Automatic annotation (TrEMBL):
The lineage of its organism: Eukaryota, Fungi, Dikarya, Basidiomycota, Wallemiomycotina. Residues 374-390 have a biased composition (Basic and acidic residues). One of its GO terms (biological process) is vesicle budding from membrane. It comes from Wallemia hederae. Residues 404-415 have a biased composition (Polar residues). This is Charged multivesicular body protein 7. One of its GO terms (cellular component) is ESCRT III complex.
Amino acid sequence: MEEYKNSIDEYSNASRIQRLKSLYSDWSRMRVTNERGYTANLEWWKGVLMGGLDSVNPSTLSFTFDASYVRSWQHPRLGQPKALGVVISALVSDGVLLPLSEYLNGTSNTLPRHSSSLLNAPLEWLFASLGLGGEDSIDDGDSAYEKAKGTYVIASRVRSLAGTVVDEHALESLTRRLYTRKLFALKYTLSHNDADLLIKWLCNDGNAVCTHEGVKIVDNRSQPHSHTLTTVDKGVIGMVAALHSISAQIDELEANHIKQRETTHAKRVLRSRKALQDLLHKRLDTKESLQGVLLKIEQSVGDIEIMQAYERSNDTLKAILKAPELDRDRVDNTMDTLADTLADHAEIDNAIARPGAAGVSGEMEQEIEDEYERLLGEQEGEKEVEQKKEEEEERLEGEKQLQSQEDIQQSTQDATSLPTLPTPPSTDPVVDKVAETM
């Protein structure tokens, strides 16, 4: 709780001490003199109290408002808050908290407006504000505390957990929807008291049936008889309890067996271990037998539901076939009359047809055929023109290529037919022939 209180700004921030002082005072009579301040204090405490419950006890479904709880809000300088009873009364009025005794004795998960003296506080304030009761008619902090003392159910938590239970069992078989109270509490890790609160909520909503012999989670889509704890249900609950007991014994025996194996005693330990093994095998055989019986019971219940579905389908079909509209003679007469009516319609349709309609239709068909042939011919002509155009272009392109080749050849021939030019005179020095002969 101290850690949670330190997370609140008014507690951790020294500059907010005056605000906290106002919150810790007896502000109950401000409802007449300063309604805005009263509402601000009340809403602050509502949020803080519910936040404290979520922080300190997040899993419990109830809490007790008493002197010990008030002391948990002790402040080193301001002492204990003096108007918490007013806050509890307001939470009850809002339906956030439900007085335990009235919840367990009621048949609804919402309390009637006149069921609790705590719910009369708004009326007392109204009379006082109208001057009909005077300021003295409003409870001070001490009086509000005395009226509010007690145990309360936290409605939102029970509602949420009940929804989880219903969702988990929506598609479960019969044997998985039957519990003893102890097994139900173990499954959802609840205390005995919290398990009773949850079961009560489920029963009030019609989602469970409960007796001192066990609990049955109801499938609301099933037959009305499933909303009672039948003899078969009680037998299955007994078998489920026995199976759980056997399983617990097996777990204990296996633990002891493991422990025995870790020791090194001689024959005594061996005899003890042998006895444990024999007992363990017997319990395992018993467990298998019980599981087999439960499986057969579950199968039989499923067979019953199938037969009931067949019977309902048969009864429904019989009821439909008994309708006067489906009488055999009436059906035959209706079909004969329908055939005659259709024949009359065909004769009338032929009689009112226009004379010469067939001729007109034939001429129209011929015109359509001629138009189609003309369009087809035009399309073929366009294709021929396009094809000739492409052929002409290809021919011209070929002629161009041929002409280019001829021009190249002619140029080559002209180059080879040119006359031979004379050899230029030698540049060597002239030698005197006379000198050479000498």
